[in-house]
Amino acid sequence: MKFEWRKQEKELYLPKNKPAELTVPKQKFYTISGKGDPNRKAFGEETAALYAMSYGIRMMPKNGGAPDGYFEYTVYPLEGIWTLSDEAVAERRKFDKADLVYKIMIRQPDFLTEELASANLERVAQKKPNPNNQNVKFETIEDGQCVQMLHLGSYDDEYKTFEVMAQYCKEHQLNRTTFAHREIYLSDPRKVAPEKRKTVLRYFVE
Question: Gene3D superfamilies given for it (predicted)?
Answer without folding.
Answer: Regulatory factor, effector binding domain (3.20.80.10)
